[in-house]
Amino acid sequence: MSEPGVVGVRRVGDRALLAEVGSAEEAAALAAFLRASGLVADDVVPAARSVLVDGVDGSDGVDMAAAERLVASWPGGRSVAAARTVVIPVTYDGPDLELVASRWGVSVSEVVARHTSLTFTSAFCGFAPGFAYLAGLPREWQVPRLADPRPRVPAGSLAIAGEWCGVYPTASPGGWLLLGCTAVSLWDPAAAEPALLAPGTRVRFAGL
C-alpha cells in the first residue's frame, strides 16, 4: 500500500495540473482540499488515481507555481467532508446475485446484507452522465467484470466490478455484475447539480 499524499504533479498545458495519488479515496480527498482552499481554477476533477486542476487563473506561470505548491502541501489522507448522504432504495433481484454469492461463499441474502451494510463514497463521475464510481467495497468482496459484457444494461441497475460499485443512470452496454435495480433518477440536466451522486457524496443502499 502506498503512503498517503501526492505521488507526483505535472503541468498539462499552460493552465492545468495533473496530481497523481495512490487511491480513489485520496483523489476525492485531495479534490475536496483544493476546492476548500480557495484555489482559483475553472474545475477540479478527481479520477481513480489522479486529480486534474483545470483552468488555473493566470498565464505567466506565477499562479501555476502557487497551485503546484498548494497541491504539494496536501497532508494526505482519505477523509472527505461529504456534503450529504444519499440513501438509494434497491430491489435486490439482479441476474448476477447468485454468481456474486458464489464468489463470496455466502447466500444471496447475505450478499444483500453485506452490501446494504456498507457506506460508499462517490470518488468521481465518468463513463456516462451521472455515473458515479463508488468507492468502499472491501478488497475481499471485489469481483471481476463479466468476460462478455451485456449489450444493454437497464437504467437504474446496481452493479459491482473490481473495487467499484455503481448505478447505471441510463440504459447502456456494461460488463459489471448486476445486483438489483432502483427507480431513483441519477441525472437531471436541469438541476443546479445534475449528478445526484456528485464526487464526495456518501451513498448507502437500502433493500426494498
Automatic annotation (TrEMBL):
Residues 7-197 form the Carboxyltransferase domain. The keyword Nucleotide-binding applies. Gene3D superfamilies: 3.30.1360.40, Cyclophilin-like (2.40.100.10). GO terms for molecular function: ATP binding; hydrolase activity. Transmembrane segments: none annotated. Keywords: ATP-binding, Hydrolase, Nucleotide-binding. It comes from the Bacteria. This is Sensor histidine kinase inhibitor, KipI family. The lineage of its organism: Bacteria, Bacillati, Actinomycetota, Actinomycetes, Propionibacteriales.
